[in-house]
Amino acid sequence: MTIHDTGDEPLDPAAMLALSRQQQAKVNTTYAKPMVAMLASWAIAWGVGFLVLWSGIPENNSPVFVPQPAATIIFALLIVAASVTCAVLGIRMNRGIRGSSNYAGAVYGMTWSIASFGAAAIGVALLRAGMSSELAGLFFPAIYSLVVGIIYLAGAAIWRDKGQLILGIWIIAVGSIAPFFGYPGNFLLMSILGGGGFAVGAIAIAVSLASTRQRVARG
Amino acid sequence: MATLATLDADGSIAFPRLQELLDMTAGNLSTHLRKLEEAEYVSQEKAFRGRTPVTFVATTKNGRRAFEDYMEQLRTLLGGAS
Questions:
Q1: What percent of chain A has pLDDT over 90?
Q2: pTM to 2 decimals?
Q3: If residue B59 lies in a helix (H) or strand (E), which one and from where to where?
Q4: What phi and psi values does residue A97 have, to the nearest 5 degrees?
Q5: Beta-sheet strand order (sheet of B52-59)
Q6: Chain-chain contact of A24 with B3 (C-beta, under 8 angstroms)
Q7: Residue contact B11–A14, C-beta within 8 A
Q8: CATH number for B44
Q9: Residue A167 in contact with residue A152, Cβ under 8 Å?
């Protein structure tokens, strides 16, 4: 039963408690719903993106072959699309709210850009110092997995979010292990386990939201 | 109050955002907020976003305490049902 406070009529205690829980659940849902889209966009970016990169290497005998230049462009576009999606949703989530959480949110948001640029700069420097394209294929996914994982762990600390904690540890683990599979096998691992990790996260939040809606509806 | 209680202690929320979260008409929400303000449970601050006036709503310390006490009483009355 969903409680609607329609006016000044006093509600009985059970109805009041249900109404409070309903309102608090609504707030939690408002913040959790965009997370589903954010994680789903990364699931697609990593899952499809790394798979396309892997398929662009002829020796892999991929059933679907995407030439490397096109594969690289597709990968880059997917990453940009996911980044933009998260930036827009992140900003919209906190619209109209003022307080100390704004500072944490702003710093968290900036960290993505700063860390990403830093990782890119290190990679470019290594390329200029003679890193081969094969090693670059191992380095870049690994360093970005570390960046993403650490930022999720920071988010887990700031917002006491177990979901981000689990996801952060998973992404760091996948990114750290993938290089041991060599190039280009690491792309396949990143696609299945990295993209899969984000997909599982998105599904877990969606299921939790559905469960919350049912619980609130029952009163 | 339940929605406002989810804010940080020093947090406030813009009236339109609160209206969206509560799915209430502006008039209905204003009436509720006026009563809560008279009881000194919430405060309302008029600010500007660029040239657009915006009212930010926050709970007072009294308001947060009163809400927590009330919720505790409800839970006790209802036998600790969660």
A1: 54
A2: 0.82
A3: strand B52-59
A4: -110, 135
A5: A97-98, B12-14, B52-59, B42-49
A6: yes
A7: no
A8: 1.10.10.10
A9: yes
Query: Does residue B81 belong to any structural domain of this protein?
Result: no
Amino acid, res. A205 = I
Per-residue pLDDT tens over the stretch A13-52: 777 777 777 787 787 788 788 999 999 999 999 999 999 9
The whole domain housing B39 covers: 8-76
- Give CA–CA dist A60/A51, Å, rounded: 11
Q: Which residues of B touch A (CB under 8 A)?
A: 1-3, 5-8, 10-14, 16-18, 21-22, 56, 71, 74-75, 77-78, 81
Tell whether omega for the bond before A63 is within 30 degrees of 0, i.e. cis.
no
**What does residue B47 show for φ and ψ, rounded to 5 degrees?**
-135, 180
What distances in angstroms separate CA A73 from CA A18, A26, A78, one per listed residue? 51, 40, 9
Euclidean distance between CA atoms A81 and A46, whole angstroms: 11
